[in-house]
Amino acid sequence: MPDLNAILLNAFKLNDPAQLDDLRLGDIPTWDSLSHMDLILAIESAYGLRLSGDEIADLTSVSAIRTLINQKEA
Q1: Rounded to whole angstroms, how far apart are CA atoms 22 and 70?
Q2: Which domains does the chain have, with CATH numbers?
Q3: Residue 66 has pLDDT above 80, yes or no
Q4: 67 near 58, Cβ under 8 Å?
Q5: Quick one: CA dihedral 56, 60, 61, 63, positive or negative?
Q6: Is the pLDDT of residue 1 over 90?
Q7: Please, which residues have CB within 8 angstroms of residue 36's CB and are 6 or more apart in sequence?
Q8: Which of 2, 11, 17, 30: disulfide with 46, CB 3.0–4.6 Å?
Q9: What count of Cα atoms within 13 Å lies in the side-chain half-sphere of residue 51?
Q10: Rounded Cα distance, 68 and 74, in Å
Q11: CA nearest to 35, candidates 18, 15, 13
């Protein structure tokens, strides 16, 4: 199973997984619209998923990302 924390840390150029807690789109300069799409591509590739436009639009927090991946893997 891919390491979601590693994907998120890499996408946002962060070092500490604790920084991911309660993180939302726009909270940090490295999570902007461009890095958001890079993150989506990384998640799709790592998990073998194809996310819809609505799903992508809903992924505005780390919590929402974790929830969607858990639902897709169930």
Answers
A1: 17
A2: 4-73 (1.10.1200.10)
A3: yes
A4: no
A5: negative
A6: no
A7: 25, 59
A8: 2
A9: 23
A10: 10
A11: 13
Write the DSSP assignment of 25-55 as a string of letters: TTSSTT-SHHHHHHHHHHHHHHHT----HHH
Tokens of 59: 């992924």
CA-CA distance, 64 to 58, in Å (whole number)?
Answer: 7
> What residues pair up with 24 in beta bridges, in sequence order?
61
Q: How far apart are CA 47 and CA 15, in angstroms?
A: 22
Distance of CA 62 to the CA centre of its chain: 6
Please tell me whether the overall predicted TM-score, pTM, comes out greater than 0.85 for this model.
yes
